[in-house]
Amino acid sequence: MLTPDTKPDLLDRLFSDLDLSTGAVAAVSGGSDSTALLLLLKDHLDRTAPATRLLAVTVDHGLRPDSASEARLVQRFCVERGIAHRILSWHGDKPATGLPAAAREARYRLLAEAADAEGIKLILTGHTADDQAETVLMRQARDDDGRGLAGMAPATLHDWRTWIVRPLLGTRRAALREMLRARDISWIEDPTNIDIRFERPRVRAKLGQGDGERRMAEALARSEQAALERLDIGRRAATLIDAFADRPVPGLIRLDRGFAAHQDGEAALYALRILLAAVGGMSFLADEARCVALLSRLRSAPLCATLSRTVVDARRTGIFLRRENRNLPAALPPSNNQLWDNRRRITLKDGPGGLVIAPLGSAAARQASVSEDVPQSVARAALAAEPALWRGAERLDFTGGDTGPQAISMVPVVAPFARFLPSFDLAPAVAVAALVGAPLPPAPPFHGHDGERGWAKA
Ligand SMILES: Nc1ncnc2c1ncn2[C@@H]1O[C@H](COP(=O)(O)OP(=O)(O)OP(=O)(O)O)[C@@H](O)[C@H]1O
């Protein structure tokens, strides 16, 4: 446990696993945990690698009257210690519902942009064991499918490019605060952290009473177990995806019929949930109970069903998955780093140049040449829902790529993990990436433990 007189080598263990070669962005709100993170990291770097670039970033969400002055306090704190610091403000529209989730998305986007601008590949946050226990208890209360009980992953890949790491996830908040007090350092108390109108502060308050310590220890033990299980089932699902799935034409996944009858039914179920989300362009895995029913029907008869925006067409020759042809995005000019239908990432070097992206459509798909070993109607229906670039009525290269002076790419993504990929799910994410033609994700930023953390395949 961390105490004020904790030996440097023990402290260093928090960071010694990390590949800090491109530098680090520390996400610092000014609260106790992220202030402690910044100080510990600075100490570690001063001792072990003083030339490493360290940038502290504070996001001003503009949601509380004091947020701007608090950000400036953090700035002063950093300047006094010779730490580079930036304040980034969340401008865009603030939604009336789902505000915390929108704030979180914006925060990570801004942090990733700051890292990108400096060529830094790593963001560190101050999430603690206390945060982890709260997260697990909240998810448990929601009758989660069990995956969520793993809590926060030690690392999460943002936008398939920047790793967010949580080095303090095994450290208690009280220990960090003790360390700060011993150094005579104060921190900002965010009033929303004790506002019991919100769920997390309510859970936090309960953990501070009576048998709170025991409940916290139980929640942490449960999350460790759930994390191991999630890694394990992810690896088994990845093995099945590798063995049973291929992509005969863009937008179409074929599963060998043996997939549905595989003896590792649990892994087949997990693989199916991931594949349905990937094909349908969904951020969430397909519903577990409905997939159980679907898998069992797939074992016996031919069928055609729709789940998670994906048409499941099971025939004698295979189980075919394709994006349903409803509710596809309307024709729109492409914009940079946009996710199209949550299935393609658009990268635009110049302006849209009068181009629009729209589904290929069935008329054009009918003219496409399709390999003989796939049912033609199925292949064409899949192609019709794929994105194409148009200039007026003229269709350009429908798979994207360079279009004359315009450089546009429309690279496949692994929908459920395109924005956030928890390290727990790395193995199936890599398997689906290889399947749909998405680039492989960057390896997690840990020395020597890649296999253990799920980077088992690439
Ligand atoms: N406004 C912000 N600017 C930069 N980073 C932030 C901001 N808000 C949160 N974070 C990062 O996310 C982590 C978890 O956020 P959370 O909201 O749980 O913490 P907090 O109460 O704001 O502050 P702390 O974790 O520092 O006590 C923080 O430790 C910090 O690394």
TrEMBL record:
Enzyme class, broadest EC rank: ligase
Binding site for ATP: 29-34
Main location: cytoplasm
Entry keyword set: ATP-binding, Cytoplasm, Ligase, Nucleotide-binding, tRNA processing
Residue ranges annotated for the tRNA(Ile)-lysidine/2-thiocytidine synthase N-terminal domain, each copy included: 25-205
Keyword ATP-binding included in the entry's annotation: yes
Sample GO molecular function, one term: tRNA(Ile)-lysidine synthase activity
Cellular localization per UniProt: Cytoplasm
EC number(s) reported in the record: 6.3.4.19
Catalytic activity: cytidine(34) in tRNA(Ile2) + L-lysine + ATP = lysidine(34) in tRNA(Ile2) + AMP + diphosphate + H(+)
Family the UniProt entry places it in: Belongs to the tRNA(Ile)-lysidine synthase family.
Note on domains (UniProt): The N-terminal region contains the highly conserved SGGXDS motif, predicted to be a P-loop motif involved in ATP binding.
Function: Ligates lysine onto the cytidine present at position 34 of the AUA codon-specific tRNA(Ile) that contains the anticodon CAU, in an ATP-dependent manner. Cytidine is converted to lysidine, thus changing the amino acid specificity of the tRNA from methionine to isoleucine.
Protein name per its UniProtKB record: tRNA(Ile)-lysidine synthase
Gene source species: Mesorhizobium humile
Taxonomic lineage from the root: Bacteria, Pseudomonadati, Pseudomonadota, Alphaproteobacteria, Hyphomicrobiales
